[in-house]
Amino acid sequence: MKFCVDTDNKNSWYIGTNNFDAEMANKMETLMFQGNGYFGIRATSEERQLNERRNMFVSGTFDEFPSEVTELPNLPDLLNMEFKIDGETLSLAKGQIKGYHKYLNLKNGELVRKFSWLINGKRVDFKYSRFISMSDKHLLVSKVEIASDQDNLNIQVRSGIDGQQSNSETQHLMEGDKRLYEDKYLQLMEETQQSHIKFVFNARHNVYIDEVLLSEKPFINMGRRQIFANYDIHLNQGQHFSMTKYASVYTSIDRDVDQKTMAEKSVSRLKQNCAFNYDEQLRKSTKVWEKDIWQKNTVKISAKDIRPQVAINFARYQLAANTPRDTRMNIGAKGITGEGYKGHTFWDTEVFMLPYYIFTMPNVAHDLLRYRYHGLAGAHKKAQFNNYRGAQFPWEAAWPDDGESAPLWGSADIVTGEPMKIWSGFIEQHVTSDVVIAIMDYINATNDQNFAQKMGYEMILDAAIFWSSRLEYNRNQDRYEINDVIGPDEYKEHVDNNAYTNYTARWCLQKAIKVYNLIKTDYPNLYEKLDTKLDLTKNYADWLVKVNKIYLPQPNADGVIPENDQYLDKKIIDVSRYQVNNQLSSIFKDYNLSQINEMQITKQADVLLLIYLFGDLFSDEVKQSNWDYYEPKTTHDSSLSLSTHSILASDLNLDDSAYKFYERACETDLGIHAGKAAQGLHMAACGGVWNMTVEGFGGVRIENGKLKIEPHLPLAWDGLEYQITWHGSALKVKINNDKLAVEVIGKGINFISFGEEYQIPANSEIEITLPVIAEV
Fold it and tell me: Are 228 and 146 in contact (CB under 8 A)?
């Protein structure tokens, strides 16, 4: 496992670098991202650098530029601190840099950068520190400290709010008022052009010489979309300069402020925060990290190599920093770490990130699913546009009411030179099943009947109405098919009967039939309400006619399930040279998508994803046959692929393969290649690291509504500890090479392990000797 960041063998919460590498700067900006779910900032430096991506985003603030799809607008820069030392502008491209060290504390989100700048015979030492608060979601606190052995050193500082930012030159914001309160508090107001979301940005600076607060007022200058405070300081030998910058952002869609009084109230709140110094504010934020995040999802890996523990800490940190705590919002495919995918939500959340939250913080999982409930109107809109009924969830989702938010056109075709149409928003329809899979996993793991009755059952029934309307009857075969789709393997467009899509569509109908009978018998008031809303009586009859006639591709004589009707007839080529872990889809240097569509090449787990999610439907022999067939044909060009393969390899006792895929998955963002991380993190890969660790090696799975724990500890590890939640009880699991110990805190639970069912009474512990299983 090779990382592009340095690690510390004594501190698994540390990632850092001792080198300023301009070619890797964009990736480092992404990896050391800071956020609290409400807003986030890339780890750009306070002073400007060439080719940087100076991004700050607030979750859910989507805006649409004419002729483009909606996206999160890049917001004014609150980080900026520009220094002149004796007239020389600080730049890492000038002079000499000594002792450069930049690191992120994953445990509390503090970013620190230190270096000495040698210019014109002078040495000036800089230390920058900053964090985004977890205790006040609107607050950013940053600090700079400067020392030098020079006498009468002149320091000029320019810092404030710079609204001259864009999304790759697309401007979303209209300038509003600029204000100065009490000669100290800077304020800039802006508004999005199409969605008309109002923003208020505030900043204040406290400047100290040897810890004595300067009383002099700064010089304020205002420009177009800018307001800055300027200081002119003279530092004598042995003196120490520091400046703490308090900044905040508020929006008109916030639920904790009144937009009519937002400008004044936000300044008042910043005043309160300025009463606490940098260290005090950091301690307040750190306490929230510990209480609300780390105490709920312990994962400890016992191994000689620290990097697996660093990887799981990094993944959990990024999930916490990028997950909104507002049910009108969801996790973007790249979170709020960059402009990639425009902040849109995909199936990534339900299949790859929800397991982490379902098992560790079910309250967050509840809110992420509630986002889909808020999105039913948009799902109905999409279904109606496509002449279907029910809820067809969008492939790309932004604000929940918007419906489909996928772009229509992508990059140019290397053969034709013309833009390639993006078909996913039209025919990649399995996302509707993915939402139902997540709903059922949540209900099974939590037994949250309040959610089920208020939201979950309705979404399941509405999704089934869509699938029933989507089915196409084949008279010759007397069966229902689903033609012209894209499955999880996005290298196969316009295919018929994609196995994953067909199996999951039938499963959705089966769940809807069970829900119908349950609510009709046990919840008559709910049944009456949903019958009026969804015409359940008519749709139930339709489901019964169709459910057992949905065509499911069956294993052939070799045990291989056809990915779709056309796949097994296509040309086979050797894809090994394209299975390079750099996230660059190098196959497109040789072929266009139309050519790839005619070859047995798979982008990411498709049939194997079906087997992973619905393992109880297939025999071990069929699982192995499909692994042997499809994995060599898979390029793993998607960051979603590696974790699925690792977990399935664990299930198949392919221990060596499981760990190799695990290492590659951990390198998706942390690895040495530049890849696509400059555009933002791969949030599904972060979820995948937890999935591989706890579901794969830790053996946790939901099967037929029951909890299963069947560990497959890697040879490289001596032990694994983790904590999950099941039916409201906390389970502390400890695994070594031959023992499984499960402690329950709360009411008793049942679980299955290697064919045996175990009962653990309330607040007690059980220890099991693990069977010896030979690697295949």
Answer: no
